[in-house]
Structure formats: C-alpha cells, structure tokens
Amino acid sequence: MKIYLVGGTFDEKRGKASGLIAKIYWALKEQAQVADVQLYNGGHIETLRKLHDENLMEDADAIMWFANVPNEFEKYRDIKKHYPRKLLVTSKRNHDEYKFNYLVNHALGLKANLVIEFSRGEEGRFQTRLFDPLGAVWVDRTYDIQVLVEGLVERLAYLKTVKRIGTRYKEGVIAIPNESEFVSLVKQLSDRFHDLIHPAEGVTRFLGNASFRCRHGFPSFRHGDKIFVSRRNIDKRNLGLDGFVPVQKGKDGKIYYYGEYKPSVDTPIQLALYESYQNVNYMVHSHVYIEDAPFTEVAVPCGGLQEVKEIQKIFPDRTTTNVAINLIGHGSLILASSVQDIEGFLDRYISRPIPEVMNSMVMKC
User: Fold this and answer.
1) Contact by Cβ (8 Å): 28, 3
2) Domain with CATH 3.40.225.10 in the chain
3) Of these four, 127, 145, 207, 246, which has the most CB atoms within 10 Å of its CB?
4) Nearest Cα to 261, choosing from 287, 240, 281, 288?
C-alpha cells in the first residue's frame, strides 16, 4: 500500500513541520502492509496546491490529508474531487468544542473514508480516535500513536479490498408505478429514523434508502425485472413517487439508471439481493438497528458489494423473505414480499450507539 501523508502548516514562506505528523510517518513506515510513505510535513502553499490540483498523488492507495492552512489562503479540502478513487483519511482537531454528530457530518462533507480526531488529554498530550462517516470507531481514544496507526492501516487494507459498481445514465423514460402505500410507509419510517439518529443539520444520508421491484413489465425495458430505488441523498421524510429512480442491470453486467437523478449508492447491493431472493419485492435500508435481528460479521462501508455475501451467509435459503438483518457498524435492512410485512418491523427499530466502537472481531476481517 502506498500512502501520501500531508500535514503540518503550509503558508507563503517555509511553513512549519508538525512533530505529531512526524510520529505518524515513522509509525506508518513500520507497518508491513505499507510499501511506501510519501511525506509532506509543512512547506510552501504552492506545494499544497500542486498536490491538490495536479494529480501528483495519482499513484497513491490512500491519502492522509491533515494540512493546516492559515485563513488567508485557500484550504484545498476537496481532495475527492481530484482523487475520487483514492482512500481519503482526514483529521479534525477537537478540544471538546464539537459533538460527535458534527464530526460525522464533517466526514460526510469531505467524502472521507476515515477521520482521525485529535484532542488534548492529560498533561496536554494529544489523544486520538479513528472513526468512519457512519460513526463506527476503529480505534478508540488513545495516546499511543503506534496503536492508532496499526488500526488505521488495518482498516485501510480492508477498505482497499472493497468492491463497488458505479451506475451509468441511460436514455429513456420509465413510468414509476403507483406505490403510494410504500411511499407513505417510507415517509413514516424516515421520521422514526430521524428521531432515533438526530443527524446534524443538512445530513439526509443517515435516513437510508428504499426500493421496490415491479413485476408488471414496461416495453421500454428489454430484459430483467424492474427495480426502483430512492434517489441518492434525498430526504425520505419528503419522499414522493418522483423520488424513485428506475434502475436495471444490463447484459454487460453494468448498472443503468433512467432520468436526471442518480440512485442510492447502495443500488448495486440491492439489485444483487433482488436477484438472489426472488420472493423479495421491497427493501428498506436505514442507519439504525432492528431489535433481535441477526448481525453480519464484517463491517462493510456503504456501497461495498461484500455486504451481499455477508447477508447470504445468514440467509442461505434463496426463498427467504420477510426478514430483517443488522449490518454491523452500518445499519439494517428489511427484505419483504409486501408492504404489510414491513409494517411488522415498525416497533423494533432502535438507535445504533453513536459513536459505535468496533471490536477486534469486526476489525480483523
């Protein structure tokens, strides 16, 4: 694994190196899974601009972007815009002025895969915590940089193996079937999820997504069942039929969507599950848990196709339907044949512990 570590202060002079970044660098160098670490610890603001804008980190597997920039300069924070396929680790200094849901919102805004929180502990020493945008904590508060880095590299190594499939636009207009009963239920559920999660203002991703299978053919489709998935990042509390996006898997194995809006990032997972479980007609995914539902063993991030196998391990019978499953470190999923079957789970939703500290079994996946 090749990592670019960018930290310290960058300004119009020489900047200033950070002793903490230096410690992280040397700890990274000791990790067997890390083949190379490129260090930029303070310097001229032009160096930061070039790293940000000119694809100088294109050979990275992961980018750790901790640069401190005075307010009079551009902050260069939209790393994912320039390096969308790289794993991104960002940081946030927090001396008890920010609540955890703000930190999660910060991670979502930067599209970070992982975040290191730095805070002042005993005798002014830095304490660190590693978490992801779903509020799962991979290294709880520690003063030991070695412990932090070991947990960081372990999680990065797993994230590097996560497989995703993107969605592609396809021309055509597909009518959305009248599923008003399901839409009404999703709105009701989203109100429940919002009450359980209390996400930071503006965060709708935490309200999950919903989808349904249409078995009534439309001539516009050439093959396969029709699946309709809620739009990406739409607030489900205000959902209407126009909040669903028609999607299908093509003969080429790629996934296509119709209309101007992209579908949920979990679309490839749900299409695979509809293909596996032919009796399932509805799914509701949320970022809360369901009481007494079984848990997956491995914490898979949003959109990771490994989640399909995790679910299939628990429900190997492909005729399974009307079940709920908790996705460890993530949320839950209901697979149902009818809207009425989903209603049976309404009173079983419970909050995830946020932050949710992951144990060694989940970490060492």
Assistant:
1) yes
2) 167-363
3) 207
4) 240
| Alpha helices (H) in the chain, listed in sequence order | 19-29, 45-53, 79-82, 100-110, 145-161, 180-197, 267-276, 306-314, 339-343, 360-363
Assigned token pair, 320: 């399974």
User: Which residues face 310 on adjacent strands?
Assistant: none
Residue 259 pLDDT:
92
Portions of the chain given CATH number 3.40.50.10300: 2-161
Token code pair at residue 80? 């994912």
The class that CATH gives domain 2-161 is alpha beta
Contact 324, 347 (CB under 8 A): no
Half-sphere exposure of 54 (CA within 13 A, CB side): 7
Token pair recorded at residue 237: 């509390």
pLDDT of residue 79: 95
How high is the pLDDT of residue 56? 96
CATH for the 167-363 domain, from 3.40.1280.10, 2.102.10.10, 3.40.225.10, 3.20.20.70:
3.40.225.10
Instruction: Indicate whether 191 pLDDT > 80.
Output: yes
